Amino acid sequence: MTTELYDITHWIAGAETPGQGSTQPILNPATGAQVGTLQLGDAATVDRAVEVALAAQREWAQVSLAKRTQILYRMRQLMVEHTEEIAQVITREHGKTIADAKGEIARGLETLEFATSITQELKGFFSENVSTGVDAHTMRQPLGVVAGITPFNFPAMVPFWMHPIAIATGNAFILKPSERDPSASNIVARLYQEAGLPDGVFQVVHGGKEVVDALCTHDGIQAVSFVGSTPIAKHVHATASAAGKRVQALGGANNHAVVMPDANIEFAAAQVASGAFGSAGERCMAVPVAVTVGAAHEKFLEAITAEANKLVVGPGDRAETDMPPVITAEAKKRIIRMTDEAEAAGARVIVDGRGLVVEGHEDGNFVGPTVITDLDRTHPTYTDEVFGPLLVVMHVGNFDEAVELVNSSPFGNGTAIFTDSGHYARRYQEEVTVGMIGINVPIPTPVGYYSFGGWKDSLFGEHHAHGPEAVSFYTRQKAITTRWPAQNETVEASMSFPTHE
Ligand code: NAD
């Protein structure tokens, strides 16, 4: 692993492009040490990237579908060859385990693989003789220049939900990755160039609020895809919509897993533990709440305690690590504070991760797996997104109460039910107000050729991410009606609205 500090610049017009102004340190969450320096952009950097993108997009839209597909196939191969390098960078800057980083790269590639079938996805419709001698057809065209703004927790996968489809459909894409773990995006930019993508079609501008706001309001940008926390998703949705752009803004989550008394409790506990503690709970599809129904409660507490106590907490680059550090020292403090506040309000702390120290990594952002129960449903440690390895176990009397609790959350990203009953599983999928549902599956993240998205405060906008909905998001439809009368044929023009005869 690199020990020298490295600089991360923007990637504009196919080249590393230094920033003009402020910088921000990149820290390794496992050690607390600085590993790099990020050059932050501003509104002028966005202006430059958009100018380049506008010129590049005009030419890119004329490139044949066959040629676009060949470039995407080459890109896929390069990503596979560079998986180890990208995973190392993700682990260094994000903290997650190498295996988990490779997992997110593989899941991101599902969208790239879907994008290689763009020849199928961009087919229009044709209807002959919709009226006498009149045909109708449709086609989809790119929007132009589009932007993506992404969170820290999936520095490879979430951008991949966006750019392969935006590019395959003929757009130019500007990525503003998280400022906490930005390096993976620059590697992706370099690989796109190596794959043969023309310069300017994929660019990276680093930065914070100023860059985000400039992307949301720039006249040259037609659409904004955002993934991150709910308050910023709302801000991006409002700002970019007011500027007349198409927007999809995916927000935060507080996913519940219901454990029915008929479930295999050991299986459910192992699955919930993976959802609650995998990647230290820093997934939008993490499971920070288990809802035990009736007699499941005591058995589940026992089983989840055993699962949590098994986990090895350590740096992500150590093979035996199950659970890595959280992203920042502030995040660690927030998780500990939320546990303290729950305890002060009368909750029982069944597994306590607050005092954990990883030997040799005393300055790392480690919090152990934590399980609490007997917490009031109005307490912020239950209602708010914790985004850490803290599982709240809520106990209800029956299935209807479980559904009511799940639906009372303002979030609606993902949820799961553990049961042996097809009847309750079917009712659950029908009755919950949540976008993605797992039945005996804790993290029901849709595959790349379906679309991903939550309901309520977990998504603002009409389109879900990746898969078919992304093809629709990144394109505009034209409907064409055609008549080719013979040269001397007269067709009577009617003054009334045309009916199809
Ligand atoms: P975040 O909202 O802090 O940041 C997301 C992006 O917004 C980053 O690029 C960041 O630079 C930018 N940003 C931050 N503050 C801003 C501001 N004031 N104005 C404009 N832009 C700003 O999110 P995060 O902490 O990086 O990621 C974790 C969050 O993302 C969690 O809430 C998680 O649930 C959510 N998330 C959701 C999904 C989903 O699919 N719904 C997926 C992954 C993560």
Task: Explain what the structure shows.
By secondary structure, the protein is α/β, with parallel strands linked by helices. It folds into two domains: 6-251 and 458-479, 3-Layer(aba) Sandwich (Aldehyde Dehydrogenase, Chain A, domain 1), CATH 3.40.605.10; 256-439, 3-Layer(aba) Sandwich (Aldehyde Dehydrogenase, Chain A, domain 2). 38% of the residues lie in helices and 22% in strands. It contains 16 helices and 23 strands. The chain has helices at residues 43-60, 65-81, 83-94, 98-115, 118-121, 157-168, 183-195, 209-217, 230-242, 265-277, 296-310, 329-344, 380-383, 399-408, 422-431, 467-473; strands at residues 6-8, 10-12, 15-17, 23-27, 34-39, 126-131, 134-142, 145-149, 172-176, 202-204, 221-227, 246-250, 256-259, 289-293, 348-351, 370-373, 390-396, 411-412, 414-418, 436-439, 455-456, 459-460, 475-483. Strands 15-16-17-14-13-19-20 form a seven-stranded mixed beta sheet, sandwiched between helices. It has a six-stranded mixed beta sheet with strand order 10-9-8-11-12-22, with helices on both faces. Strand 11 (221-227), helix 9 (230-242) and strand 12 (246-250) form a beta-alpha-beta unit. The longest helix is centred in the N-terminal third of the chain and has 18 residues, at 43-60. The protein is globular, with a radius of gyration of 25 Å. The N and C termini lie far apart (72 Å). The model has no long low-confidence stretch (mean pLDDT 97). The chain binds nicotinamide-adenine-dinucleotide.
